[in-house]
Design goal:
This protein is an alpha/beta fold and 442 residues long. The protein has two domains: 249 residues, FAD/NAD(P)-binding domain (3-Layer(bba) Sandwich), CATH 3.50.50.60; 163 residues, 3-Layer(bba) Sandwich (FAD/NAD(P)-binding domain). Helix content is 23%, strand content 21%. The strands form eight sheets. A five-stranded parallel sheet has the order 3-2-1-7-22, covered by helices on one side. A five-stranded parallel sheet has the order 9-20-10-11-16. The chain has a three-stranded antiparallel sheet with strand order 4-5-6, with no helix packed on it. Strand 18 and strand 19 form a beta hairpin.
Length: 442
C-alpha cells in the first residue's frame, strides 16, 4: 500500500496510459506523472504522414465496433459510426484526457531512457527532453507504452534489391501508384494494405504462409463483434465451430478465393476483420500467392515453384514486444510466455505493473480501463493479488482463453469477454457507481 502522496510514473499517454492516470487520480493519488514522446495524448492513434511511433495509416478505421471499444466511464458519441476513423479516435482519447484532468499530468516530448529498481524499493527513471537528460525517483511505475511500435521483419534466403519495408512505414497508397507490390501476411494490416495499394498499383499480390479466418465487419446487418457477443453463453469449442460454420456459409471457403484454408480452429490466431479482401480477390485486383521461398534480386520465388517480379515488398509481419528502458533481468517479454498476473503484475516487483500488454480477440481499451481500476486499488491497498503470485501466473499461462498457435504473435492473447469478466471479479460491485461522463463532441 502506498500513501496518497506517493509519486507514480506512467510511461505512455496512449489509450492504456491515460486510463491508468485517470484511475490513479480517482483513487486519490495526487502526484502522478505521465511521460510521452508525442505532443498530444492518443499514442498509436496519432496519425503522422511521416514514419513515427504510430502504425495507423491515412485510411485506418478501427476493426472492433464502437459498442465494444469505448471506455466504460466515457462512452463514444452516439453519432460516431460503427467503426470510427483514426481522427475520431484521436479526438475521443483527447476528450477523455481533458475531461478527467489527465492531460495536466502528461509531460509531452519526453523519451524514457531507463527505469531501474533501487534498493529502497523505489524506481529511478532517466528521461530525455530535447538534448537534456534528467533523473527522478518514483514509488511506483506503470508501463503503458504499447506493443505495436517495434517492427518485426521477416527473413528469407537470398537478397531482395527492390524496396523492402514494414507496414509500420506504410502511410498511404499514392506512393505505390503504377508499381508492382507484394504484401506479406494475412493479419489485419496486411489485408488492409493489400486492398489499399490495389486501388492504385500496377499489380498487388498477397503472400500467405498459412490460412487465416477472415471475418467481415458486418453480419446480418450488425457489427460482427456485436453478433459474436451473443454467443458467449456457448462453450468455447461450440462457439468456435459456430463461427467457422457462419463464415463458411456466408463467404464460402478460402480456397474459393485462391487462399489456403486455416489449419487451426477459430480463435487459435487473431481473426482478420476485413470486408473488402475477398471482393478484391474475386475482382482480380489482388492476386494470392503462397509462402515465400527465397529472394533473387527483384524476383521472389514462392514455395509452389512460381515466381514474380516486384518493385516493392511490404512486410506486414507484426511487432516485437519491447520495453527498451527496462533491463532484461527486470522484464523481457520479447520471446516466449509473458508471466504477468491478469496480464499486468509481475511476481518480483509489487510496484511495477503493465497496462494494455495483451492482445484481445476484440478491443484493448475497455479491458485496459478495468486493469487500471484494479491497479489503482492495489497501490491504494484496497485489493491484493494472490499470496502465491508465481503460482497464480503459472495457472493463468497454463489455461489460456483459446489455445494459441506457438508463434511470437500469440504470446499475449486473451478473449475480450472472458478477460473482462476476470477483471470485473476483482472489482467491488459498485465499481461503476458514478454516472458515466458525457460523450465528446469533437
Amino acid at each position: 500500500m502506498l500513501s496518497r502522496s506517493a509519486r507514480i510514473a506512467v510511461i505512455g499517454a496512449g489509450p492504456s496510459g491515460i486510463t491508468a492516470v485517470k484511475n490513479l487520480l480517482d483513487a486519490g493519488f495526487t502526484d502522478v506523472v505521465c511521460f510521452d514522446r508525442n505532443d498530444a495524448v492518443g499514442g498509436n492513434w496519432l496519425f503522422r504522414l511521416e514514419s513515427s511511433h504510430s502504425s495507423v495509416f491515412e485510411t485506418t478505421h478501427i476493426i472492433s465496433s464502437k459498442t465494444l471499444s469505448q471506455y466504460h466511464d466515457f462512452p463514444m458519441p452516439s453519432w460516431y459510426p460503427d467503426y470510427p476513423s483514426h481522427e475520431q479516435l484521436a479526438r475521443y482519447f483527447q476528450s477523455y484526457a481533458d475531461h478527467f484532468d489527465v492531460t495536466r499530468h502528461v509531460r509531452f516530448g519526453v523519451d524514457v531512457l531507463r527505469v531501474e529498481p533501487l534498493p529502497s524499493h523505489r524506481w529511478a527513471i532517466t528521461v530525455r527532453t530535447g538534448a537534456d537528460d534528467s533523473h527522478e525517483e518514483f514509488d511506483a511505475v506503470v508501463v503503458a507504452n504499447g506493443h505495436h511500435w517495434r517492427p518485426r521483419m521477416p527473413s528469407y534466403p537470398g537478397e531482395y534489391t527492390g524496396t523492402l519495408m514494414h507496414s509500420h512505414e506504410y502511410k498511404r497508397a499514392t506512393p505505390f501508384a503504377g508499381r508492382r507490390v507484394l504484401v506479406i501476411g494475412g493479419g489485419n494490416s496486411a489485408c488492409d494494405v493489400a486492398v489499399e495499394t490495389a486501388r492504385v498499383s500496377a499489380t498487388t499480390e498477397l503472400s500467405w504462409r498459412r490460412g487465416y479466418w477472415i471475418v467481415p465487419k458486418f453480419l446480418f446487418g450488425q457489427p460482427s463483434d456485436v453478433v459474436g457477443q451473443r454467443t458467449q453463453w456457448l462453450p468455447r469449442v461450440l462457439r468456435s465451430r459456430l463461427n467457422q460454420f457462419l463464415l463458411r456459409v456466408l463467404q464460402g471457403a478460402n480456397r474459393d478465393y485462391g487462399l489456403p484454408e486455416p489449419d487451426h480452429a477459430f480463435g487459435a490466431t487473431h481473426p482478420t476483420v476485413n470486408s473488402e479482401l475477398f471482393y478484391a480477390l474475386r475482382h482480380g485486383h489482388i492476386t494470392p500467392r503462397p509462402e515465400i521461398a527465397r529472394f533473387d534480386g527483384r524476383t521472389v520465388h514462392f514455395a509452389d515453384g512460381s515466381s514474380g517480379e516486384y518493385d516493392v515488398i511490404i512486410a506486414c509481419t507484426g511487432y516485437w514486444i519491447a520495453h527498451p528502458f527496462l533491463a532484461p533481468d527486470v522484464a523481457d517479454f520479447s520471446r516466449g510466455p509473458v508471466p504477468l498476473y491478469l496480464r499486468m503484475f509481475p511476481a518480483r516487483f509489487p510496484t511495477l505493473s503493465f497496462v494494455g500488454l495483451f492482445q484481445p480477440l476484440g478491443c484493448i481499451w475497455p479491458a485496459a480501463e478495468l486493469q487500471a481500476k484494479v491497479l489503482a486499488r492495489r497501490l491504494a491497498g484496497t485489493w491484493s493479488p494472490p499470496a502465491d503470485l508465481d503460482a497464480a501466473i503459472a495457472h493463468e499461462l497454463a489455461h489460456p482463453d483459446y489455445p494459441q498457435l506457438d508463434t511470437p504473435r500469440h504470446t499475449i492473447t486473451v478473449d475480450y469477454h472472458q478477460f473482462k469478466a476476470r477483471l470485473l471479479r476483482q472489482l467491488p460491485a459498485d465499481w461503476q457507481a458514478s454516472a458515466s461522463a458525457p460523450a465528446p463532441v469533437g
